[in-house]
Amino acid sequence: MIKILAIETTCDETAAAVVQDGSKVISNVVYSQIPVHKKYGGVVPELASRQHLEAINEVIRRAIEPVGFSDISAVGFSRGPGLVGSLLVGSQAARTICFLKKLPLIAVNHLEGHLFSAKLTYPDLQPPFLGLVVSGGHTELVKVENYGKYKLLGATRDDAAGEAFDKVAKLLGLGYPGGPAIEKISVKGNPQKIKFPRPYLAGSYDFSFSGLKTAVYYFWRDRKKSDKISVADVAASFQNAVVDTLVEKLRLAAASQKIKKIVLGGGVVANSRLREKIAELAKKEKLKVYLPELPYCLDNAAMIGAVAYHYWRKKIFADLTVESKPDLRWHSWNH
What we know:
10 strands; Nucleotidyltransferase, domain 5; alpha/beta
């Protein structure tokens, strides 16, 4: 039995976990900074790194408590992409533990973690498959051929889906984080009330949500009181436009690549409307879809441990001098 201690500090969650054999979660500790950043309407990088510094030791202590360091085979950490200061805290903690405990170090791409987070729910899940990462900073379609071997099919050209949720929520006065706020109020709205544009970008698998966000801004600014348009209607119509775009892009990519196995990951995948539409797509197109459980959609260390285990099996280890890479891209992550 191989147990990996995993550390995740790419943005505003300080997380550590112990994962056995790539799928069994022994511990999964997450310290959320939402209360700290909420009053600013978004993540403040300097505050995020300070919070990581204050929380990292306690989070790791709690994660390792059920097993102890003597049972740990290696330490995995998120190398990037992410915020510079936040990544530094996690990488330094991982390297220090490996140095003191004489353990191998495993560098994991944060987006790999999201791609394989469903493995914590479906232990038998294996590549190849078509992956869609939908989070606050990323919206990307990836053909996963194997661990560490990826082909990027499409990426966001401007605002990622999660970022668009945050900005529209702020515009509508719904607070931060935007995704849960919009999802909650959308239940009371009519998703067909306003015909916001669907940025399909014909001929491309790329995403672009900036124009949709701008359309919401102008609609809300120029609305007439006599129209009886509620915040819930706007939120529901916006959410529907984002979901329609994601699902259609996924459908087109699956058809063109002739792939029937679909895996989603990232914070936006917790959205109930998206999960509902994905289920409908799977039934219609006869696709096998794997969705992570809700706790594993958001940033967490268990998903990093799931990936790190497979690099441990291949003996792909990082040197203790390895540095974090805030702008880590798929094309540079082929082991």
